[in-house]
Every structure is written in structure tokens, then in C-alpha cells.
TrEMBL record:
<dbReference type="GO" id="GO:0008218">
    <property type="term" value="P:bioluminescence"/>
</dbReference>
<keyword id="KW-0521">NADP</keyword>
<dbReference type="GO" id="GO:0003995">
    <property type="term" value="F:acyl-CoA dehydrogenase activity"/>
</dbReference>
<dbReference type="InterPro" id="IPR008670">
    <property type="entry name" value="CoA_reduct_LuxC"/>
</dbReference>
<dbReference type="Pfam" id="PF05893">
    <property type="entry name" value="LuxC"/>
</dbReference>
<protein>
    <submittedName>
        <fullName>Acyl-CoA reductase</fullName>
    </submittedName>
</protein>
<dbReference type="InterPro" id="IPR016161">
    <property type="entry name" value="Ald_DH/histidinol_DH"/>
</dbReference>
Length: 352
């Protein structure tokens, strides 16, 4: 299959996903194989929710919209244009996927196939329904993909390279286990925001999207903010209050109650508003329903500190802090060329 054929197949997948990306799921005209796949995928959304309580319909649809927006002809062509993608004998690339948010491993899956390699997928048990269905749709719109996509729950064997995502502990295991293979190994990372105190209400409302989307479970979710000495949190709490219905979700409420009890019993200082807590803490990874914060006195000093800890940070959200910053509200809307951990997976895949 030629590169443009592969691109066209993913464009058709994006068209298919677009039907499910809004609150009103509706069957569109002129979508290839819709009669075969539409009802099945609509039912699968319910199964995914029942299987994983964190995968609400709202969050699944947010992920589907993000991917339908990304999988356009313009975006895919722009993404691959800088690379010299030659049609060479395909390699077998294993992907070990995380399951913290819906379709979190899709970018790796897409990258392997767009290059022309074969993909061997080991999914997380938390997110095992959506991707195999979408892979089957790809095989219908581009039959040459058949034999290039394999899902397994067994021990990975017969692969030439691996992309594996997990916790800090599993990453160490991956590094040992795959030390003889070309690999990208990803571990825990978190995202931070830098506030100056001059943010508008809209800025802070947008930041709340970075904090609460997917319940804060993604590595691109902001789990910690840095604020100037003497910062008053009144405007911050007012700007995030529209997220208060999140406390009606049982899994979130259970975590909120548990973490609040721990903080109270430990006599930790924290601020809370009935559905969310903020706590001064030097760590980057905050529990669900909690945001850590830390004061700074000098932005230049803060830049130095964050540079020394860049291996723990996925995104920096700010306005005018540094050249690689991400705008408020944009962490969960990455482009195809926004690579996890700043590791260019296409360059890696072309080199194996």
C-alpha cells in the first residue's frame, strides 16, 4: 500500500468517527461501510462505559472528536510532509498501550501504520474495546491493512521494535525486558501550569478544562500550578466552579471523599470548594480531585527549576513563560506532530 492510500484510509476513519463526536450521535450519509459499522460502534460506546467507570460518554466523545479533527487530509499530509517515507519492507512494531484515557494509544497505532509497518498491539485491560473495532473498519476501507494489524493478550514475540507506555515501575521492567530491541519507553509524566496572577476569567476557565477533562487521569492534564507569592485563589475557584457537577460521578466522588479525609486526618492545610481541593505540595502528581500548587518568587528561577525536572513534565501551560508553552485549555487537543515526551515517534519508526 502506498503512503497516500494509507493516509486516505485514516481520513475515512476520521469521517466515520465524526458521527460520534457530538452529543447528538447521528448517522451521516456517504460514510463508507456505515451500514456495517455504525450501529456496532454506537453499541460499543455503551460497553466501553460499562467496562470502565472513568470512560463516561462525554469523555469518550471528547476523545473521538479530537481524533476526528486530527484525521483530515490536510492534517495528515502536513504531518508526514517533513519526513522521507520510503516504501520499504515493513517491520513488526509492538505497542504496549496504557488505558488511563480513551484511545490513549491511538497515536502510536497510527504512526506505525502510516509509516507502512505492521503493528502488534497489547492493550490495557482498561481500554480494550474501541481500538480493535476501529482497526476492523480500517481493514474494510483499505483491505491491504489486513495482516498488518494484530491484537494479542499473550507474550509479545516476533517484533523488531517496541513502543511501551506504563508507570515508573513498569517502565523499568520494559527497559530491562526490551533492552535488545529499538524502543520508546514512556513512564509517568504530569503537566503543570504557570500563573502570573494577571489571567483573565476566560484563561482560568480554559485552565479548568486542562485540569478536569478525563478526571485528570491523562499525562497532559494539569496536576500542579505554580503561582506567585501571595497569590489569592478566589478568582481561580470562581472560574472553575462550572465543573461542580463532576462530584455527581460516583468514582470521582469516592476519590474526593477519601482524599479529603486523608488530608483532614493528617492535618494538612488545603483549600476546597465541595468538589475539588488544592494543596501546597512539591510533588507533580496529585491525586484525583486534588490540584497541587507551589509558590514562586522569580520566573527565571522557576524556569531553571522546571528545566532540571523536565523528565517529569509532559506539558507546561502558560502565557508568555516559554516558547514551548501550551495555551490554557489546549492540553487535551494535541496535534499529530505533538509527540509524547517530545520523542519523535516517526523518526524512530523510520530508523528501525
Amino acid at each position: 500500500m502506498q503512503l497516500q492510500e494509507r493516509i486516505n484510509a485514516f481520513v475515512k476513519l476520521g469521517d466515520f468517527l465524526r458521527q460520534f463526536s457530538n452529543q447528538d450521535i447521528s448517522k451521516a450519509e456517504n460514510i463508507e461501510f456505515n451500514d456495517i459499522f455504525f450501529d456496532g460502534f454506537k453499541h460499543l460506546l455503551k460497553i466501553a462505559q460499562e467496562h470502565n467507570g472513568w470512560f463516561t460518554l462525554e469523555n469518550i466523545q471528547f476523545a473521538l472528536k479530537s481524533w476526528s479533527d486530527a484525521l483530515t487530509l490536510e492534517n495528515l499530509n502536513k504531518w508526514v510532509k517533513p519526513y522521507n517515507i520510503e516504501e520499504t519492507p515493513p517491520k513488526q512494531v509492538a505497542i504496549i498501550m496504557a488505558g488511563n484515557i480513551p484511545l490513549v494509544g491511538f497515536h502510536d497505532f497510527l504512526s506505525v501504520l502510516i509509516i507502512g509497518h505492521r503493528v502488534l498491539v497489547k492493550q490495557s485491560s482498561n481500554d480494550k474495546h474501541l481500538l480493535p473495532f476501529l482497526a476492523k473498519y480500517l481493514e474494510y476501507v483499505a483491505p491491504k491493512f489486513k495482516g498488518h494489524i494484530v491484537f494479542t493478550e499473550e507474550k509479545l514475540e516476533g517484533f523488531d521494535a517496541v513502543i511501551a507506555t506504563g508507570s515508573d515501575n513498569t517502565a523499568r521492567y520494559f527497559e530491562y525486558y526490551f533492552k535488545g530491541k529499538p524502543s520508546i519507553i514512556r513512564n509517568n509524566r504530569n503537566s503543570v501550569a504557570i500563573l502570573s496572577g494577571n489571567e483573565t476569567t476566560d484563561d482560568l476557565k480554559n485552565l479548568s478544562e486542562d485540569i478536569f477533562r478525563y478526571y485528570g487521569l491523562g499525562c497532559r492534564n494539569v496536576s500542579k500550578i505554580f503561582v506567585p507569592k501571595g497569590y489569592k485563589f478566589d478568582s481561580f475557584f470562581e472560574s472553575i466552579y462550572h465543573w461542580n457537577p463532576i462530584i455527581n460521578k460516583a468514582k470521582y466522588a469516592n476519590n474526593y471523599d477519601y482524599n479529603k479525609a486523608v488530608y483532614l486526618m493528617s492535618e494538612f492545610d488545603m483549600l476546597e470548594n465541595g468538589f475539588f481541593m488544592i494543596k501546597e505540595d512539591q510533588s507533580f502528581a496529585s491525586p484525583i480531585a486534588t490540584l497541587f500548587y507551589e509558590y514562586y518568587e522569580n520566573l527565571d528561577q522557576l524556569k531553571v527549576i522546571l528545566e532540571t525536572k523536565k523528565e517529569q513534565i509532559q506539558c507546561i501551560v502558560s502565557k508568555g513563560f516559554n516558547e514551548n508553552e501550551i495555551a490554557f485549555g489546549a492540553t487535551q487537543k494535541p496535534q499529530l506532530w505533538d509527540y509524547a515526551d517530545d520523542v519523535d515517534s516517526i523518526e524512530f519508526l523510520l530508523a528501525i
